[in-house]
Specification:
243 residues; alpha+beta; Lysozyme; 8 helices; 43% helix; globular
Length: 243
């Protein structure tokens, strides 16, 4: 069982507490907003006295428990299946492949360094890289976003990124951008991710996660994967402590 924290200090715990249902297929789920500003997407709910259990999936073992009074709004949403970006192309003509090809350990090292600088969990950054580019440092979207964390040219320039195809620069810039969005939305990971995908102006205009299928699916997929990794890491830690 997971209990939703009433108050947290570390951004890692705050981010990990935002639990959304995975979207392997089209699925009707419930979008819950809590008083503390967190957004959750759950499979179903169940009353337990003055508490409410919000289940992440159809099972009865994986749930978040909150006070009923903490729920300020709810709505049903349809989460579609969204694959990794298929619109990416290589940019070999403008990229030196010798400095952009990374092994998994090298990428992990970059993410760890950037995460430590901004107090962000390395697994969260890894999940974003996976969803944004599939780990392809040469990726270019239809809209022109580039590199591992898919930075738009203007955003990259504003962040001081000279070449978005250089993994180190891209990861540093993308992590700094995510950090800025988390600060803007008071460490609400769901809103920060929605802004990363659709732009902060869009999130501000809709006063929350915009009703775009792509954005909602993106947010759900990133946080679902992050929570999977986070819980797996906790299980390893618990097992190690028990020895």
């Amino acid at each position: 069982m997971l209990r939703f924290p009433q108050k947290t200090r570390t951004r890692v715990r705050t981010c990990a507490a935002v639990l959304l249902l995975g979207v392997g297929m089209a699925h009707a789920a419930e979008h819950i907003t809590l008083k503390n500003g967190f957004d959750l997407i759950c499979d179903h709910r169940e009353l337990a006295g003055d508490r409410v259990r919000l289940y992440m999936d159809s099972s009865t073992s994986n749930f978040v428990e909150v006070d009923a009074a903490e729920i300020v709004s709810d709505e049903f949403v349809d989460l579609p299946k969204v694959d990794l970006p298929k619109s990416t192309v290589t940019a070999k003509s403008v990229v030196d492949t010798s400095k952009t090809k990374l092994t998994e350990p090298e990428l992990r090292q970059l993410l760890t360094s950037a995460g430590a600088e901004h107090d962000l969990d390395v697994d969260l950054l890894a999940c974003i890289v996976r969803q944004e580019s599939g780990g392809n440092a040469h990726a270019v979207s239809r809209a022109g976003a580039r590199g591992l964390m898919q930075l738009m040219p203007k955003t990259a320039t504003d962040l001081g990124v000279a070449d978005s195809f250089v993994p180190g620069e891209n990861v540093k810039g993308g992590t700094a951008y995510l950090d800025a969005l988390l600060k803007r939305y008071h460490d609400n990971l769901a809103l920060a991710l929605a802004a990363y995908n659709a732009g902060p102006a869009t999130v501000d205009r809709w006063h929350g996660i915009p009703p775009y299928r792509e954005t909602r699916a993106y947010v759900a997929r990133v946080i679902h994967e992050f929570n999977r990794r986070y819980m797996a890491r906790r299980q390893i830690q618990v097992a190690s402590t028990a020895r």
